[in-house]
Amino acid sequence: MSLLHSAILIPLAWAVLMPLFGRRLGNLHAGWLVLPIPIVLFVYFCMQLPLVSSQSVMKTLAWMPSIGLDFTVYLDGLSLIFALLISGIGSLVVLYSTFYLDKNKEAIVSFYTYLLIFMGAMLGIVLSDNLIVLYGFWELTSISSFLLIAFWHQRQKSQYGAQKSMLITVFGGLAMLAGIILLYVMTGTFSIREIIPQVAQLADDPLIVPTLMLILLGAFTKSAQFPFHIWLPDAMEAPTPVSAYLHSATMVKAGLYLVARLTPVFAVQEQWFWLISGVGLITLIYGSLQAIKQKDLKAMLAYSTISQLGLIMCLLGLGSAAVLNPDGAGGEMYAKATAAALFHLLNHAMFKGALFMVVGIVDHETGTRDLRKLGGLMALMPVTFTIAVIGAGSMAGLPPFNGFLSKEMFFTAVLQIRQMSIGDLSAWGGLVPVVAWIASVFTFIYSMVLLTRTFGGKLQSDQLEVQPHEAPMGLLFSPVVLASLVIVTGLFPNLLGAALVEPAMEAIHPTLLAAGERFDVHLQYWHGWTPEIWMTIGVAGVGTGGVLLYRRLKLQNRPWSNALNANLLYDGGLRLLDGLSRQVTDRYMTGSIRRYLVYIFVCFIGALGITLLWTGQIGWSEMKLAPVSAYETIVVCVMVVAALAIPWIKNRIAAILVTGAVGYMVTLLFVLYRAPDLALTQMIVETVSVALFLLCFYHLPKNDLASSASRGKWLNLTIAGGAGFIVTLIVIGASGPRNFESISSFFVQESYRLGGGKNMVNVILVDFRGFDTLLEITVLGIASLGIYSMIRLRLAETKQRGEMRGNRLPLNGMANYRSNDVILKTISKVVVFIIVAFSLYLFLAGHNNPGGGFIGALMTSAALVLLAVAFGLEVIEKVLPINFRLLTAAGLLIAALTGVGSFLFNVPFLSHTFGHFELPLLGDTELATAVLFDLGVYLAVVGVTMTIILTIGKEER
Fold it and tell me: Cα separation of 199 and 335, whole Å?
């Protein structure tokens, strides 16, 4: 595994370990345990600067190569910029949060777990070459962001903001996934590097425009572009370190990264230019106007972030014009807009990160972020004020800060765009500089309002919750570093130009350069009395007048109209969808299990019946069938009689036992067909299922069989007969001639050679189809947690009401249940150990003989069920004080780590190996890594089964 892969996986692995070690730190803040991770990553990426300036780096780990999914990472100038932001700003945010969050009052272990997941996911986005892998990390950022925004989950606003950000960004992510699939349909690959050479063929494909629109939908929602911007202000309910990291420097930049990365693919389409430039420009002016209206400091910074993201998005769109005009000086001229976008991307992370931290300090030291209550903090908090001056000055575009240079480059780009010969730019292009200039005026106004209203004027001590004072050095260090970088990069901008901006431009515009050529990005303050300078002077002059007018009219106290607020549309749409879904759901979710089964079986009959008719697979063909023995005939007859008897049995216990008899007859059939693995599995599953049925039926109300027998029996008969008929047709069709060659011969021939096992069934489960097994035990784990949560909530609700539910028994009655049979108790004391020993044998021998982790786990669970029946569930809790939910998690973790371990040897995910070793006492022994995966399956299945049984049966203590 390469270091680039490790850079992504280390934060994720550390996030897994945080809950295990984070709570054992004593008086040490968990932040100190996390801080080395981003620092090491930042140093590593800094060391790649000389290499990336001359060449890119690509490393591949085979994951699922048969379907074109490889974990390929790619480091070039563009990905390096974002990697440095993620790790560098991440280091400062972790340090800042160590002093910001109280370890005695906050769930800091959870906080840093979510933060590390986000960090790893963001690195995965910017380093992935495979679009499907990129999408996986993309959605992981949405999930981790949801958890971070909802960190203070007891607050209603935090819940609302987290839900909104999740819904909008995941919606955009799904649209992006559709675009990725369309791109694969056109190119036959998910690799960005392999797609770029096919750009000429893509230009005339009818799917290219829908594809770019779907992908841009994902980028616009992630980067809070109008009208999808509404999630970002509500996300400010997250702790300030989250806002400084996710919502200024990293997550909101993911959409910008996607646009920049795919510019070589889509920039030949004019729609790419118009959509990105237009949406960015609208977002720029809308965000700047809304920022002026805000009374909360974080809300003001949120809308200013929206505005600045729109500026960068607009510049990326304008820069894509270089591809449409590649010849001569035109291509180089328009590419300067891309340089401006990259430079401002870095600048914005610096000054906005510093400003968010300043707002956090003000909130931390005064107890409020309300502009109407603040003022006069300049003398009390001089260091914080100095940082705010630098950050606000850069955001306003004033010299000598770095924001001045990127604003000048922005003005240059919008002025040059009038010379383009695309569409009606000759007529409408003049409006672009005007809109950009107006937005810059608004930016100047809210920057100065933020500074003067917070630190200038009179101190309003009576409005503050605490007496303000300067923050401790721990809180000041990170914003001081960022503010210092704002000044250094403003005074020496070419440090960034040569090291970062030029290589990134080569990644975005690879077709504009001939072999051996490089972009030359040279930044300086003075270019003479250019139009850009006059525009800046105008911004400062008009903006100063706007600030004075703001103060004179006391606009901070004015209620602003929300008639055009997009949040109203979102809230109304959500209420409408919720109401409609509730109406539809209430029509079929009646609480009747019988109705649910009717729905399931009717859909089953309809879907499969229509499929059989459509494909013409119904029919009887001549085939050679094996003779039916007398034993098989007897078993089938008993099974049929038992199945027919079940509807007529009035006693529930008897009905359950007869249902189990049908399953045991199936077990005998497997024995007769010489399928020991299937027979063992069926027998144990049937045993555990009968126990679960008994536990579940114990809680159901008394069944009125007399009334149920007179209603709907013909419907029941019709549905049951239809389901049986459809299954019969499927069996007949499957037994006939096959359209494809059977794959069974492959497994017969290759199970031992490739998997090292003679038990073909087990080798398929843990090796050939190991990914399926991993997902299956994951689903089982989720199901067990769902059952646990629902019953716990119901028990808590019942306990709170202090009442019993109708004619049902109290839910805590099963805990005291135990058998009075002395013989059963005596026998079970011995039999349990025999069963457990046999289950361990099945687990260890399963790779070459009948058995395996799944069967062994079910056998162990059966032993524990027997112990519970004989002695009661409380005995299991005393004898085995195990949290079976954690056991499930441990099994899943072992199974997953076994798959990830394959990457250490540069082989696909979940690849296994085996060999023969001379062991003491045992001699020549075959060892296979599949046993480790099987161990995970064993632990997960035991944990799932016992979680369900104990949850249903034990007393709520």
Answer: 19
CB 417 within 8 A of CB 320: no
- The answer to whether residues 718 and 874 touch, using CB atoms and an 8 Å cutoff, is no
Alpha-carbon torsion (550, 551, 553, 556), positive or negative: positive
Query: What confidence category does residue 561 fall into, taking pLDDT thresholds of 50, 70 and 90?
Result: low
Nearest residue to 864 via CA among 934, 788, 931, 953: 953
> Is the separation of the CB atoms in 284 and 414 below 8 Å?
no
CB burial of residue 57 (10 Å; 0-12, 13-18, 19+): middle
DSSP state of 70: E
Q: What angle do CA 521, 523, 527 make, to 5 degrees?
A: 125
Is it the case that residue 809 has pLDDT exceeding 80? no
Q: Bigger pLDDT: 647 or 435?
A: 435
Integer Cα distance of 239 and 150 in angstroms: 9
* pLDDT tens digits, 781-792: 998 888 888 877
Q: Is 64 helix (H, G, I), strand (E, B) or coil?
A: strand
* Banded model confidence at residue 814, pLDDT cuts 50, 70, 90: very low
Contact 230, 570 (CB under 8 A): yes
* Cβ neighbours of residue 404 closer than 8 Å, sequence gap 6 or more: 394, 397, 398, 490, 525, 536
Greatest alpha-carbon pair distance for the chain in Å reads 104
- Residue 446 CA, chain-centre distance (Å), reads 34
- The amino acid sitting at 319 is G
Whether 918 contacts 862, CB under 8 Å: no
Predicted local distance difference test score (pLDDT) of residue 421: 61
Please report the pLDDT score of residue 804 as a whole number: 45
pLDDT, one tens digit per residue, over 281-328 is: 999 999 999 999 888 999 999 999 999 999 999 999 998 888 877 665
Asked whether the predicted pLDDT for residue 157 surpasses 60, the reply is yes
pLDDT of 914 reads 84
Please state, in angstroms and rounded to a whole number, the distance separating the CA atoms of residues 18 and 118: 14
Distance CA 380, CA 369 (A): 16
For the chain, the 3-state helix, strand and coil shares in percent, each to the nearest 5, are 75, 5, 25
Transcribe 109-166 into DSSP letters: HHHHHHHHHHHHHHHHHHHB-BHHHHHHHHHHHHHHHHHHHTSSTTSHHHHHHHHHHH
> In the Cβ-directed half-sphere of 380, how many Cα atoms lie within 13 Å?
21
| Contact by Cβ (8 Å): 123, 81 | no
Rounded distance between C-alpha atoms, residue 662 and residue 642, angstroms: 6
| SS3 state at 912 | coil
Q: Do the Cβ atoms of 764 and 747 come closer than 8 Å?
A: yes
What is the Cα–Cα distance from 405 to 343, expressed in whole angstroms?
Answer: 9
- Integer Cα distance of 151 and 154 in angstroms: 9
| pLDDT tens readout for residues 22-41 | 777 778 888 999 999 999 99
Residues 6+ apart with CB under 8 A from 723: 601, 604, 605
Q: How confident is the model at residue 99 (pLDDT cuts 50, 70, 90)?
A: very high
Dig out the tokens for 80 from the structure. 């390096």
* Gap between the Cα atoms of 60 and 73, Å rounded: 6
pLDDT, tens digit, for every residue of 760-783?
888 888 888 888 899 999 998 998
Q: What is the mean pLDDT of residues 581-587?
A: 88
Spell out the alpha helix ranges (H) of 802-820.
none
Output Rg (C-alpha) for the chain, integer angstroms. 33
